[in-house]
Design a protein that fits this description.
This protein is mainly α and 103 residues long. It has two helices and no strands. 74% of the residues lie in helices and 0% in strands.
Length: 103
């Protein structure tokens, strides 16, 4: 093979490598942003779960106030909910949070 042919082949491979590198950097930037968003959501959900656990531990079920994601809504009248249902829901939320942390 001629030296010029070798250089041309090397140049092509370097351009391909640079393009691959650019794509991977873009993917990494996107994934970092997505990861930060998921961490913020996880922190928010963890706060909600902690609040619900505190309310459950503090008082009898059914006399607490309604939980809302936004502060602008008016609380709904309390609905009678049995302790077993609340504990089941908390376990499911914990399971989902664990899955989010692992992924």
């Amino acid at each position: 093979m001629e030296p010029l042919d070798l250089l041309d082949g090397l140049e092509i491979k370097l351009r391909q490598l640079a393009a691959t590198s650019d794509r991977q950097r873009a993917d990494q930037t996107r994934l970092v942003a997505e990861n930060q968003q998921l961490k913020r959501e996880l922190d928010r959900q963890t706060g909600i779960v902690t609040s619900l656990k505190d309310k459950l531990a503090r008082g009898p079920v059914g006399t607490g106030e309604a939980v809302s994601d936004d502060d602008t809504s008016t609380p709904a009248p309390p609905k009678p909910v049995d302790r077993e249902t609340i504990e089941f829901c908390l376990k499911e939320v914990d399971r989902c949070l664990d899955w989010l942390q692992r992924n």
